[in-house]
Amino acid sequence: MTRKPSADSRINAEDIRRRKGGVPIVCLTAYTYPIARLLDPHVDLLLVGDSVAMVLHGHATTLGASLEMMIAHGQAVMRGSTRACVVVDMPAGSYEASPEQAAASARRIVGETGCQAVKLEGGVDMAAQIAAIVAEGIPVMGHIGLQPQSVEKDGGYRIKGRTEENIAALFRDAEAVEKAGAFSVVIEGTMEDVAAKLTRHISTPTIGIGASADCDGQILVIDDMVGMTVDRVPKFVKEYADLRSVIADAAARYAAEVRSRAFPGSDHVFTTASSKDET
Length: 279
Ligand code: KIV
Fold this sequence. Notes:
Layout: H1 13-17, E1 25-29, H2 33-39, E2 45-48, H3 52-55, H4 67-79, E3 85-89, H5 99-113, E4 117-119, H6 127-135, E5 140-145, H7 151-154, H8 164-180, E6 184-188, H9 192-201, E7 206-209, E8 217-220, H10 222-225, H11 243-259
Parallel strand pairs: 1-2, 1-8, 2-3, 3-4, 4-5, 5-6, 6-7, 7-8
C-alpha cells in the first residue's frame, strides 16, 4: 500500500499551489536536523535538495546523490521541522527510466520519510513520470531551466533562455509540467525576462533560483545563503551571513586555547566541588 504524505498541520502542496500570484513563497534547502529546526519557523517550504551530495558530501556534482542518501537526509529534516512543507529531491537514476520506476522511487521516498512531496528535473521528457507519481497521490514539484543533473550532458552549468529556440523549449517544458499535475515548478538559471514570462504563462507557482523576482517564490541553497560555501559562490547567490569566517575564527581560537591549556577551564570540568551530577 502506498503511504500518503503525512496529513499533519504542516503547510502542504495544495497550500503552496494556492499561493500563485500571492505573497512570494519562501523556500530554502535543508539537509540536517539542526538546520531544519532553525529554518522551519521562517520558511514555507524546505527542499531536501540533491545538492546535498555536493554541499555536505563533497561530490563534484549532484549526480553523487543516491536514493538512500536522500531518504536519510529527508528523515532528518522531517524530524527537525513541524510546519514547513518538506520536499525531497529524486536523485538522478531513480526516475528517468520509466513512469513505473519514478512512481516506485517516489513511493519509497514518501514511505520512508513522511515528506509532503518529491521533486524531479525535466519538462516534456519527464511529463509521464510526473503524471505517474501524481496518480499515486504524491505531489510533485517540477524543475526546468538549468537542470544540474544534466550538467555532463550539457557540458556545464549553462544559463537557459538565451535563444528563441531554447525559449520555445522552456515554454513547452513549463506547459508539460503544469499539465502533468505538478503543484509548483523550480525555474533555475534562466534569463530574467524569460522566467518572468514563464511565471505569467502558467497557473502553477514558479520558484526561482537565478531566475526572476517576478517568480511566485524563491529558493537558495542554505549553505550558499549563510556564507558556508567554500568553493565558487554562484552569481545568483546573496550571502546573508558569513559563517565561513565565524567558523574559521572559532576553530582558530579553540586551537590556541587547547595548545595553551586555557581550555578546558574550571567551568568546563567536573570536580568534587561541582554540585551537578549531569553534563
Ligand atoms: O538540489 C537543490 O538544491 C535544488 C535547488 C537548487 C532548487 O534543486
